[in-house]
Amino acid sequence: MTTTERDPGLQPERTRLAWRRTTLSCTVVALLAVRQALYGGAGPAAIVAASLSALAWLGFLRVAHLRMLGVGTARPQPLSPRGALTAAACTVALAVCAAAMLF
Amino acid sequence: MNEFVQSLRLWFAPQRIRDEGDTPDYRFSLANERTFLAWIRTALALIGGGFAVDQFLPELAWGIRAGLALALLAAGVLCALRAVNHWVRCERAMRRGEDLPVSRFPTLLGLAVGVVAVAMVVVVLFGWEGR
Question: Which positions fall inside the DUF202 domain (chain B) (predicted)?
Fold first, then answer.
C-alpha cells in the first residue's frame, strides 16, 4: 500500500489475498486438467487439450496479476467488467476442457 | 428475464455501468469483488470435483462416472456465469442506491450438491462393482 491514511478494514489486502486464493484454486484445477490430458499418453489431442488448459490458466493468472497491481493503490478502482468476464471465461474454459476429455 | 438481458448487455458494454448513479465507496466495491471471487472459487471447486470423479474413481461404471462428472462440471459452469451476473447486478444496485439483489441460486446449488452426494452414496452402496 502506498497510502498514508490506512484503511482500518484492510480491504485492499483482503481483496488481494482473495485473488491469490482463487489463483491457487485455478492452479489446482489446471494441474488436474493437464494430468487428465496426458494420462493416456501424449498424442496430438492430448497435447492440444493440455495446451488449452494451460492457456486458460495463464489467462486467469494475467487477470489476477493485473488486478493485484490495481488493488495496490491508495483508492482502488472497482474491478472492470472485462476482468470479471475473463476470469469467469477461463473457469468455464477449464470445465469445457474437462467435459471434452470425458469422451 | 428482461432484467437478465439488461445485465447481459452490461457484461459486454462495461463502460455503461459507469453511466449509472454515483461511484460507491471503494470498500463496498472491493467487498463485492471478494464475493465474486468466492463464487469463482466455488465454481473452480466444483470443476475440480468433476475432474476428480473422472480421474480417481476408475472402478465406477463409465456411465455413472461421466454422469456425475458432467453434473459437477455443469454446476461449476453455472456458478461461474452466475458469479459475473450477480456481481454486475450488485455493482449496479450500489451505484443506483437500490437494495442489493436477492437470489435463489444458493439454495439451488445446495440442493444440486446434495443430490450429487446422495447419488454418490447410492452408487457406493449398490453399484460399486458394476463395470
Answer: 27-93
Predicted structure pTM score: 0.85
Residues from A contacting B (CB-CB < 8 Å) are 7, 9, 11-12, 14-15, 18-19, 21-22, 25-26, 28-29, 32-33, 35-36, 39, 71, 75-82, 84-85, 87-88, 91-92, 94-96, 98-99, 101-103
- Measured CA to CA in angstroms, residue B94 lies from A13, B26, B59, B76, B79 at distances of 22, 11, 50, 27, 22
C-alpha to C-alpha distance for B32 and B37, rounded to whole angstroms? 9
Q: What pLDDT, in 10s, does the model give residues B66-113?
A: 888 999 999 999 999 999 999 988 988 888 888 888 888 999 999 999
Alpha-carbon distance of B69 to B67, in angstroms, equals 5
Cell numbers that stand for A88 in this block: 469467469
Query: What are the pLDDT digits (tens) for A69-98?
Result: 888 877 788 888 888 889 999 999 999 988
**Nearest CA among A45, A30, A44, A29 for reference residue A100:** A45
pLDDT of residue A36: 87
